[in-house]
Amino acid sequence: MTLEEALKILDIPPYVTKGEIKKRYKELAAKYHPDRSDESSKMATINEAYRLIMEYIENFRYSFDSNEIKKQIPSMAHNEKFKV
């Protein structure tokens, strides 16, 4: 499974927090849990997708480039521009 496939399986948007990923996983896990659904293979796929995404997050290399910081935290660019 590729990371792109995992994101599609969990229906994860391009910009998301770790907490939002966990919340989405829990929603799907509750819906497709073998005790509640006959689709146990779906739960295995959801688990694998979540594992892959979390592994990516844990090994992600962060960029502390000033342009990237301003893109991710627009208020910092605003504060810098207006010396707040």
Description:
By secondary structure, this protein is an all-alpha fold. It has one domain (3-82): Helix Hairpins (Orthogonal Bundle). Helix content is 69%, strand content 0%. It contains five helices and no strands. Helix 1 (3-10) crosses helix 3, helix 2 runs antiparallel to helix 3 and helix 4 (66-72) packs across helix 5. The protein is elongated. The mean pLDDT is 87.
Task: Round the mean pLDDT to the nearest integer and report it.
Answer: 87
CATH top level assignment: Mainly Alpha
Please bin the fraction of helical residues: 55-70%
Structural class: mainly alpha
Q: Taking Cα atoms only, what radius of gyration do you get, to the nearest Å?
A: 17 Å
Span of the ends, CA to CA: 46 Å
* Second rung of CATH, namely the architecture: Orthogonal Bundle
- Largest sheet descriptor: none
CATH third-tier fold name: Helix Hairpins
Instruction: Count the DSSP helices.
Output: 5
Give the SSE map.
Blueprint: H1 3-10, H2 18-32, H3 40-58, H4 66-72, H5 74-82
Task: Please tag this protein with its features.
84 residues, mainly alpha, Helix Hairpins, elongated
Short overview:
The chain is mainly alpha-helical and 84 residues long.
